[in-house]
Design a protein that fits this description.
The structure is a homodimer. Chain A has 20 helices and 28 strands. By secondary structure, chain A is of the alpha/beta class.
Chain lengths: 682, 682
């Protein structure tokens, strides 16, 4: 049964993990009756262990027997096998019968939709014994080839933990080879999210199963058909560790029946800790597979297992998604170029025009949280002004289609402060909308629409402003050049007691692990350098912030409230910045870049923040995080430091960022001299 | 004076490092008279410290003064300066006179050949004070631009150690920017090879100045115009550490007069430890620059400094180069494809033909050390045989132009053992030479030339062999497929008491740091993947073996002496191998790949080794090291481990290697399924 979420319409698929399947069709039927959607089953019978070495000799032995048995009927085959087992005394069991069932047992549609294959558990690809290892390799490739022949969705390979294995390198090599040999087949690496400490310490780096996954993923060069099939067993990791797993490409969650307990009515319910984990994982829409360590008789199924499925369906139905999450969903992990940025990257298909589209305006305007803040700031600002003869002059920079103008008019009406508004806008289409909306001046309020075709910095308003109002913050606070634009206007056109809204903007940066986003950048231009030297705007979904964000660049914007600043407004160089930021790494992970956010002080205590979890972020949807990529993943060990040096540079025509990871590894300086991405100064 | 080595003809150029140069032409003349070849001198006068900030305001102030002074003559310039210094009370010293001397003081030829520029020492690019840092940046770019204007060979930038600097990131960024801005200019980073421990611990990773160089090099993405100008001062590092410095791209060695002491005749001689260091460095042909902490009057020059130059010329003249070094010199760091390998790499210009060229044969044949060993092995082998009626049958695989055949004949004559030689050769041109040399059979000895056009494995000799003789070892021992070729012949054509020469081959691997070779691989195909997945043959010069070599693959070749082997001769898979090798890193460095060598047991106690420093390597020139590259440099911290997993894989038509670095970082598996390089099985 595919479970459908009652509100979101999302689907959940629940399967069962089986150890032996003597009669495939009956088994499939029985589990489908018990509401299971698919089976995870071994491709070969567990007892079909095979040896391949000395096949040459064995064949010779067999052909000798066969020739002596010449003229007998087909039942001589039995003798052939016996001949095989003679050599087998020295050579191990050699079989020449087919190693597994016929592909005719199910229709190809059934194989594809209802079966996930499993590689035999006896296959130890990293045995310290040459012969065992070589046999294991042959059996492995034989079974994978069978899975490919059946066009199964995936084959599950179990990560070997400890035992007589020397590590995982040969498993990694074999998985890599299988992925290359069968380009349509997915391999799902089955791995527990945590193992008992004694097992872990014996065989794993940091005692951490994630390290094993990471090693194999790296060996396979992050092959797009390699996924995790994670096992939630008795041992459960911390929430942070679970979040790290959730950011990995996983397709399947094995859920042991031991993760359940019986409620007072005798029905199975998930243990609390597993509920928490599963809620985190549901965001990524995995398949679930129930597993039970003891093989169960078919007769138990209709009674017992059905309740597990029903419980999971119920639990899934209760999972919630916030309005912001729903809004962001279609944008998840989709890289966009920052508005107004010129760049040399291959990603020309991104929304890249400095003329914002109508649709984008609509999105920006539909952010009540942002406009509530601006509205509050405007009211407080107007209320604080002395009442005089003069109208309050307000310059709106980047008026768009008038959302801020409307806010000003509303605030002016509420506070009974007459205003004269200069609505400056660069985009001609938006100017048309502004003209249309604000042609009729009233006694109280004037609205003058100004088309700044050559950019805001060239604008020379014909009145000095009491307030400069600006929402061109961009996801990184300063990346739509609010500091430059406001500086240029404020120098000559802000009254001595005038104010800027916002009055201060600070950007923030946090290290990000996201193999998904890294691969997206790689995909643009075949790993072209320019793509890694350009920031993006993206709703980060498959990714994890590895350490709390640090304050990066701070801009005190001119105005009476800010007092004397060290910035000299005449020189554009005053908006250059340099920061060296250090982050402490609490859990090992790979660094793929940095997420950028910002805080803005709009007016006195009215603030805005895009930092996740910060006050003032509830319901804010206008700004997706900024994403600053790096050219290669860097492994960060638990307890270590990550150091980023980042510059905001300017010259007469452009603003750009340069960045460099200097710890734990030295990477090359990114985007020197703005060669790959820069924001033109208009 | 350019010093010429009396034997090798190499040249040494000695210069002087100066702190102030008030009168450039006289100074140049004086030092040239004292036999110095070039000057290292500051581009600006040390007292010409400049500030650049608020230039805007300062200019305004100046233009006001200038306009008030309108009508005055050019001497008003002084007033303008005074105007500058009025603002300077708040703004620092602002000058508008030229910051340094005229480019006319020397001819452009003299600038280029006799002057290396130095950036002003007060420039602190990583000051923790924003204003100091910004000023420093402007002065830095001003001076670098002047150096580029003069077409100087290079400009020396001094690495800042400790003090009020926050690190080196901004210096790295500025150097990188300068390299990009002036594509023809070289920057030489002046850095002591070792500093006093208290200075080191305060500001350097591992207390090691090499780490600082490495950080800047990495930031600059190993820019080809960035070099080291190393300073040999009072503190000297270990020989291993010196070897590490020597493997870096360095152009200049600053040699302090404090590294000398006076001998009993009152002449300066280098301290022993510095002699050792300089001998290591001479291999790489650096320039030397003498430096003295106290500025010396010109009058001292002709007397004192001249003796230093004369001593250095004398010392240089005594430096020796071994015959093998001289032989290898033209091949140093020149990547070659292994003979007979098919590969998809872009490096098609390499010597890549399976038909070896006449020149190559000549090179191989001119290796007395190798043939002495083979000769000794043959003598011992023939002496040990029982004397009977039958001639001893010797199969020579890869007879080339007959060098081994001649050895056999000589050994047979010496031991009075009649022989019948089958000289098998794949190359038709070499066969012609063989026919020409060995047509006349004697009573004693027969030579039968066999042209194996389809490869040695297809050869079916018409007699069973007593001895199989083979020199197709390749730089990695097994990479010319001696195991496969010998197995194929020995299975049916080696007498039960027959022997193989060699009887055992073992390959060895050691981690290699060589930015030079890494860059060479990058250069082939613009960092194409296939180039990093192909081994090379190369005389490693600018490179350093970071840890002792470990045994890799071992091949016991068939024969009476080796006893029963586990290898089953029928199956080619028996020559597959897998090793996981761990190396301990005693000094931090970058891993760029692995060097490969081999040991061969020719016959009983007669062995051959290409490992540097191993017994039996003296004078051996036939085999340059094997070089197994990796796709990206990996930093290896002192005290850590480097782990390499390496496989020798075979199928019906090819043999190839796969390799993967799993520690200290996980790299992708290289050359999976032999996709980039493989050796065809003929």
């Amino acid at each position: 049964m595919v479970v459908t979420h009652p509100k979101t319409g999302e689907q959940l698929s629940v399967g069962i993990d089986l150890i032996t399947v003597p009669r495939l069709r009956e088994t499939l039927q029985a589990y489908q009756n018990a509401e299971f959607d698919f089976l995870v089953l071994p491709l070969a019978h567990p007892r079909y262990e095979r040896t391949f070495d000395n096949v040459h000799n064995a064949e010779q032995a067999r052909s000798k027997l066969a020739s002596s048995a010449l003229g007998r009927d087909k039942s001589a085959h039995g003798v052939g096998s016996a001949g095989g087992s003679v050599t087998a005394q020295h050579m191990g069991v050699i079989r020449d019968e087919p190693f597994t069932r016929s592909d005719m047992e199910l229709s190809s549609g059934e194989w594809m939709s209802s079966v996930i294959g499993k590689v035999s558990p006896w296959i130890c690809l990293d045995s310290i014994h040459d012969r065992v290892r070589k046999n294991a390799e042959k059996a492995f490739f034989q079974e994978v080839a069978f899975a490919a022949h059946l066009s199964l969705r995936a084959v599950v390979v179990e990560a070997t933990l400890g035992g007589a294995s020397s590590g995982i390198a040969n498993m990694g090599r074999c998985i890599n080879a299988a992925l290359h040999k069968h380009p349509a087949l997915q391999i799902w690496l089955r791995i527990p999210v945590k193992v008992a400490d004694d097992v872990a310490r014996a065989s794993l780096r940091n005692g951490d199963t994630w390290e094993m996954w990471n090693a194999i993923r790296c060996m396979c060069d992050s092959h797009p058909n390699l996924y995790v099939a994670m096992e939630l067993g008795g041992e459960m990791p911390s929430v942070a560790s679970m979040a790290r797993w959730a950011a990995e490409p996983f397709r399947l969650v094995f859920l042991s029946t031991s993760a359940f307990q019986m409620n007072k009515h005798g029905y199975p319910v998930l243990i609390k800790q597993h509920q928490t984990s599963l809620r985190i994982l549901f965001k990524y829409r995995p398949h679930l597979a129930l597993c039970h360590k003891l093989p169960a008789g078919l007769e138990r199924l209709n009674k017992g297992y059905r309740f597990y499925v029903e419980y999971l369906a119920h639990f899934f139905g209760k999972s919630e998604r916030s309005a912001v999450e729903q809004f962001r969903e279609p944008y998840n992990d989709f890289l966009m170029a920052p508005t107004g940025e010129s760049c040399t990257r291959g990603a020309s298909q991104l929304l890249l025009n400095s003329c914002v589209e109508a649709q984008t305006y609509e999105t920006f305007e539909s952010d009540p949280a942002k406009y509530d803040k601006y509205s509050e700031a405007l009211r407080k600002c107007l209320s604080a002004r002395k009442r005089g003869q003069m109208k309050t002059v307000i310059l709106v920079m980047g008026a768009g289609r008038g959302a801020l103008v409307r806010l000003v008019l509303a605030a002016a009406a509420d506070t009974s402060m007459p205003v004269q508004i200069y609505a400056a806008e660069q985009n001609a289409h938006a100017c048309a909308a502004l003209h249309d909306a604000f042609t009729a001046s009233t006694d109280q309020h004037d609205v003058i629409v100004v088309h700044c075709a050559r950019g805001y910095r060239a604008w020379r308003p014909d009145a000095k402003a009491d307030v400069i109002l600006c929402e061109m913050l961009g996801s990184f606070g300063d990346n739509e050049l609010a500091p430059e634009c406001i500086d240029a206007i404020a120098r000559d056109h802000l009254k001595p007691d005038g104010v800027c809204i916002p009055s201060k903007v600070s950007s923030f940066v946090a290290p990000l692990a996201s193999a998904k986003l890294y691969n997206e950048v790689c995909a643009f231009g075949n790993r072209a350098r320019a793509d890694f030297e350009s920031p993006y705007i993206v709703s980060i979904h498959r990714g994890m912030i590895v350490a709390p964000e640090e304050e990066c660049f701070v801009f005190e914007l001119p105005g009476a409230s800010s007092g004397p600043t060290s910035a000299s407004p005449g020189s554009n160089a005053s908006n250059e910045r340099y920061r060296s930021l250090t982050f402490s790494i609490s859990e090992s992970n790979n660094l793929h870049g940095f997420a950028g956010y910002f805080d803005a002080v709009l007016y006195k205590d009215v603030t805005l923040s895009t930092r996740p979890g910060a006050a003032g972020t509830d319901g804010l949807v206008s700004w997706f995080p900024y994403f600053i990529p790096i050219s290669e993943p860097v492994y960060m060990a638990r307890g270590g430091e990550c150091v980023l040096d980042i510059w905001r540079k300017t010259d007469d025509t452009r603003v750009w960022y340069e960045w460099c990871v200097v710890s734990p590894a030295h990477l090359a300086l990114h985007n020197p001299d703005g060669r790959s991405s820069a924001i033109p100064l208009l």
